[in-house]
Amino acid sequence: MSGAPLSRPIERLAAIAGLDRAGQALARVTAGRDGTLVAAARGYPLGHPAHPALTDLPIGFWTAAMLLDLVGGRRAAAPAQSLVGWGLVSAVPSIATGVADAPRLGPGKRRVAVVHAASNAVATGAYAASWMLRRRGRHAAGVLTGVGGAAAASIGGYLGGWLALAEEPDGAGRAGSVDPDVVERLAEQVADALGGRQVATAESCTAGRVATALASVSSAVDFFAGSLVGYREDIKRAHLGVGAESVYSEEAAGEMARGACRLFDTAVAVATSGVVGDDPEDGVAPGTVFIATAVDGTVRANRYRYDGTPAERCERARDQALRDLATALAAG
User: Fold this and answer.
1) Cut 0.85: pTM above it
2) By CB distance 3.0 to 4.6 Å, which of 23, 106, 146, 230 could disulfide with 235?
3) How many domains does the chain have?
4) How far apart are the C-alpha atoms of 206 and 318, rounded to whole Å?
5) pLDDT tens by residue, 276-312
6) Which of 63, 159, 106, 25 is nearest to 319 (CA)?
7) What is the distance between the alpha carbons of residues 61 and 54, in angstroms, rounded to a whole number?
8) What's the farthest any 2 CA atoms get from each other in the chain?
9) Are residues 148 and 195 in the same domain?
10) What gap in Å lies between CA 306 and CA 287, rounded to an integer?
11) Which of 121, 143, 170 is the last residue of a domain?
12) What is the CATH number of the domain that holds 253?
């Protein structure tokens, strides 16, 4: 879908670096949190993100209200007001799940997510004003305000569809394709953000790919301390101090990142663990990858799901690990 006529404006939006600060702030709300509520908001019990499905509720309620306004006349004023109200109620979980998903986005998509969130915030505010106007008997003003809300929601929905279905712009097109320039740029971004600190990696499913990317930077000798690549569970537990019940979890990835900091005596580390093969492991679906960063004692862990071949999943996980590390370093 990259390069399609209607996607080009969004791809240009994804290239606006000025949106990075807002995107990082959005991601920090739930970055590194893996409690029950955040896990539910990210859709882990469902096996897929919850946000896209939940957006159907406010959109459906508000669309139905607009149709009643158009064809129902005054007799439909009361049910239309109720529908606007139900849309506002259902917007709450939709917003919460959208914010929870922000840390899992790459930098390009996160920039678009900022505008997506702003559009939906405008839409929600407009519909809240519409509901109040209707409640006070100002039906015509409420309808007009609702039309403005529908316009903002349409923009937000269009951007949301792109976020759900398009590839990350920095990902060089189709899933799993490799662009050496992108990998090099991500690694250099990490090197620049370290600020004199040393970094280590603890890798399982990526099998040293993150370490290779960092070691390829010309100044790697100044910031790259080393890497432990361990596929076996006993290696992770013995050398990285993993105590989580399952090594395929955000908790385990976080412990791997902490363990790498201890093992190599660094302030910064990134860790990967997951199932990149075609068979489930320990109840975890194929393509599921857990990535964690540790920066000055602060650990952030996220869960991702990738399609493609095992090699393609490894490459996408490598790129995401570098992105997550750059984001964590920028967040401080």
Assistant:
1) no
2) 230
3) 2
4) 6
5) 998 998 889 999 999 999 999 999 999 888 878 899 8
6) 106
7) 12
8) 75
9) no
10) 5
11) 170
12) 3.90.950.20
